[in-house]
Amino acid sequence: MKISESCVVGLTWVMKDSLGEVLDELDEPVEFLLGGRDLLAAVELGLLGKEAGDKVELHLEPEHAFGDYDEQRVFLEARSLFPAELEEGMIYEGSALPPGVGREAPQDLMYTVTDIYPEHVVIDGNHPLAGMAIRLQVRIASVRAASLEEVGAGTLGTGFFQLESSPLTGEPRLH
């Protein structure tokens, strides 16, 4: 079966940055819905017409991957507003930031704690791979027709590339 919209594909991949450093590797196949919210549009386009067993190499510029880095999504907040057990790398949903944090930060983003200082904390609403060109080596392990329920849901609810639209801007964002 050739890959078309509204089908389910089982994929493995190796994701690298433009210098060849491995960013992510998926050894066991994970299923994704094409034509839904599971995959980036550029990845879907690269898979169309392929079959199980095929390998696809994609080069995605930031605008087709995780977006350009936006300094307007970086905020400096008072350290006293965060819990004592705060660690770099922790992630908060914008709507679930501690009280008093992110008054100017859009609530529809995910924020990563990037730096902790004695008096301040830096939170970043950019995707960790924003601004990076990505090389993606994909192996198609399986292809099948999607069920009506899967198509209706618009997602299989799995995967690194699951996207949803921002309710404020309508732009896709990683979920």
How would you state the average pLDDT, rounded?
88
Give the helix proportion (percent range): under 10%
Domain count = 2
Query: Helical segment tally?
Result: 2
Instruction: Look at the helices and sheets and give the structural class.
Output: mainly beta
**First-last Cα distance:** 29 Å
Q: Helices and strands, in N-to-C order? A: EEHEEEEEEHEE
CATH architecture of the largest domain: Roll
- Per the principal axes of the C-alpha atoms, what is the gross shape? elongated
Strand content: 35-45%
The total beta strand count reads 10
Sheet of most strands: 4 strands, antiparallel
Computed CA radius of gyration, to the nearest angstrom: 18 Å
What's the CATH topology name of the largest domain?
Chitinase A, domain 3
CATH class of the largest domain: Alpha Beta
- The parts where pLDDT drops under 50 for at least 5 residues are 162-175
Give the neighbour order of strands across the main sheet. Answer: 2-1-8-3
Would you mind describing this structure in some detail?
With 175 residues, the protein is mainly beta. It has two domains: 7-66 and 130-174, Chitinase A, domain 3 (Roll), CATH 3.10.50.40; 71-124, Thrombin, subunit H (Beta Barrel). It is 7% helix and 38% strand. The protein contains two helices and ten strands; from the N terminus they run ββαββββββαββ. The protein has helices spanning 41-47, 148-153, and strands at residues 7-17, 22-33, 55-60, 74-78, 91-93, 110-116, 120-124, 134-145, 163-165, 172-174. It is elongated and about 60 Å long. 20% of the residues are buried.
